[in-house]
């Protein structure tokens, strides 16, 4: 049975004194209780499955397969059906404002959803986690070799989210709904599916990206290169949103994820990976990409 002192031990490898101070103040825990060891730790990431830099150039794991293309096509079809149903319903009703507002809400909430999901798989679980184990492993590999995402082929990069969107949205498309509901579904699911493409562009070099993409990044419509670069720097616990990044300032400023991490820690004893030292699995290795 676990003693009160071990149950309430705070994590000892927090990234900064500032964080420790804030946590102790928020929880009114005296500094003396902050000792090493204690509660269970979230699974340390296994050695990343992504290919090492030397193997990147011709690595088959970065190529798209017909299965990848099939899932991305199915996801796009699900989004297209929702968009067409929304347009048809809007034409029939003569109402445009509602679906446009719903589409804007879908775009904004997709950014928030991408952040929550990214935070979850960056910090908890491992390769053996049901359903999302492969995504967790892939994101750990991404933290180690971030630039490989720019060499990943389109369908290879999007197929996991394409599959999720296809499975979740196609049945929903079959139900009758008003223009606003279908507009929300189409934009939300579309942005979630393409968030990995926006993410890849955020790792791109400005001179190599299409001018329109750079313009959208600079306007804040898509996640910017500058903002996402901060996610890959210590203390590795912010800027999780990867659609537009519009939520990042709010979430990081109000320490929303840190609060959620504390709730999970005190409820279950599981620490997020971001509380650990940014050792090998988090730290970017030398970039061997060509100029
Ligand atoms: Zn991440
Ligand atoms: Zn990234």
Automatic annotation (TrEMBL):
The keyword Electron transport does not apply. Its main location: membrane. Residues 38-47 have a biased composition (Low complexity). One of its GO terms (cellular component) is membrane. It is found in: Membrane. InterPro entries: Chloroplast_FAD_CarF, Lipid_desat. Residues 38-58 are annotated as: Disordered. It comes from the Eukaryota. Pfam families: Lipid_desat. This is Lipid desaturase domain-containing protein.
């Amino acid at each position: 049975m676990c003693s009160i002192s071990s149950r309430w031990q705070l994590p000892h490898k927090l990234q900064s004194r500032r964080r420790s101070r804030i946590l102790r103040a928020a929880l009114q825990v005296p500094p003396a209780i902050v000792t090493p060891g204690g509660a269970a730790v979230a699974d340390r990431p296994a050695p990343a499955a992504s290919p090492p830099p030397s193997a990147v150039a011709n690595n088959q794991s970065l190529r798209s397969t017909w299965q990848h293309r099939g899932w991305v096509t199915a996801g796009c079809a699900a989004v297209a059906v929702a968009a067409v149903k929304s347009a048809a319903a809007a034409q029939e009703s003569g109402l445009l404002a509602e679906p446009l507002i719903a589409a804007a809400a879908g775009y904004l909430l997709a950014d928030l959803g991408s952040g929550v999901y990214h935070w979850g798989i960056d910090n908890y679980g491992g390769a053996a986690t049901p359903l999302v184990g492969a995504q967790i492993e892939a994101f750990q590999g991404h933290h180690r070799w971030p630039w490989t995402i720019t060499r990943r082929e389109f369908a290879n990069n999007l197929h996991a989210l394409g599959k999720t969107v296809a499975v979740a949205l196609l049945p929903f498309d079959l139900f009758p709904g008003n223009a606003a509901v279908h507009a929300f579904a189409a934009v939300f699911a579309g942005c979630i599916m393409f968030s990995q493409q926006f993410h890849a562009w955020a790792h791109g070099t400005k001179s190599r990206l299409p001018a329109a993409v750079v313009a959208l990044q600079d306007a804040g419509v898509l996640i910017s290169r500058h903002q996402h670069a901060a996610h890959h720097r210590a203390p590795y616990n912010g800027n999780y949103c990867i659609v537009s990044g519009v939520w990042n300032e709010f979430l990081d400023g109000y320490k929303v994820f840190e609060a959620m991490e504390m709730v999970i820690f005190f409820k279950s004893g599981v620490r997020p990976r971001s509380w650990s030292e940014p050792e090998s699995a988090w730290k970017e290795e030398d970039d061997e990409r060509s100029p």
